[in-house]
Design a protein that fits this description.
There is one protein chain. With 158 residues, the chain is of the alpha/beta class. The chain contains 5 helices and 8 strands, in the order αββαββββααββα. The strands form 3 sheets. A 4-stranded mixed β-sheet has the order 1-2-4-3. The chain has a two-stranded antiparallel sheet with strand order 5-6. Strands 7-8 form a two-stranded antiparallel ribbon. A hairpin with a 2-residue loop joins β7 and β8. The longest helix is centred in the first third of the chain and has 14 residues, at 45-58. The protein starts with a helix and ends with a helix.
Amino acid sequence: MKFSQVKEDLEKLDVGEMIEDEPMYKHTTYKVGGPARIYLKVKDVDSLIKTIKYCGKHRVKYLVIGRGSNLLFSDREYEGLIISLNECFNEIKVNGSTMIAQAGLSCGFLNTLPALGIFQGCEDILRSLRLSKTALISSGLLAVNSNVTSKTINFRLS
């Protein structure tokens, strides 16, 4: 499928702002990377779902990214769709000892929470997040892509 058709279809689905041939170095902390055929700033969860369903149905290569931490792109063109969560997935909810942070939220911001008195007692978890920049919370499991090997975060939570 031609990317002009992909762009036209996604515009009809009204899933967010699209940029053609967007340099990926603008969206990574390492500031490297060539252009993506289409860079999409999805506007909400429903738009994300529609986009991923569309890509699956039409076999469009895609990659979902957050803030671009620890992310490297080749200088060659990415022949696919980059779906950015950075623009609208930046909410945090804290309820007692539970924190839910969306993928577009800065880990640097999370590190300020104990100092603000919002999530005290979890400094070790937040320190690991600062080191790793990547966390997945699902069904009570916290998994972190981290260089910290002596202790794991899921051990500290149990």
